[in-house]
Write a structure and sequence with these properties.
Blueprint lengths: L6 E3 L1 H9 L6 H10 L5 E4 H12 L9 H12 L2 E3 L3 H7 L10 H13 L2 E3 L12 E3 L1
Parallel strand pairs: 1-2, 1-4, 2-3, 4-5
Helix pairs in contact: 5-6
Length: 136
């Protein structure tokens, strides 16, 4: 992995890494493993909300409460949370880039583009965005 390259984990990658790492591709797992010691792993803050919603909607079963799980998930890999800023919010609504129906995915992809980060995701809909580098 190149020194200084930010790695942004999509919500699915965060969940897979924390609960079912065998669901990550071999390449995604290696990039996460390599990025951890350099503290180059990040997530968008909306991913925290998505995880909480999955728990609330019973799409994700945990052995602990949501707040504790989120903290453990971030601390286990030293994942830093990136806020949504004006540029990211604006970029996420650009119809020339995004035809994706999920606003959270648009924000996550826009965050990766804004920070020139590589995005770890299994979402094939995001692969068609030319300025976005996907790892899976």
């Amino acid at each position: 992995m190149e020194c200084g390259i930010m790695i942004l984990l999509d919500t699915c990658a965060l969940i897979f890494d924390a609960l079912t790492p065998e669901r990550l591709s071999r390449h995604a797992k290696k990039v996460i493993d390599d990025g951890e010691p350099a503290k180059m792993l990040f997530c968008c803050n909306i991913s925290l909300w998505e995880v909480a919603m999955y728990v609330q909607k019973k799409r994700l079963e945990l052995n602990t409460d949501t707040k504790n799980f989120l903290q453990l998930m971030l601390n286990a890999r030293h994942i830093q949370v990136l806020p949504i800023n004006v540029e990211i919010a604006s970029l996420s609504c650009d119809p020339n880039l995004f035809c994706h129906g999920d606003p959270a995915d648009c924000l996550i992809a826009a965050t990766a583009i804004h920070y020139h980060a590589k995005l770890i995701t299994s979402d094939l809909k995001l692969k068609n965005i030319p300025s976005l580098e996907i790892i899976w």
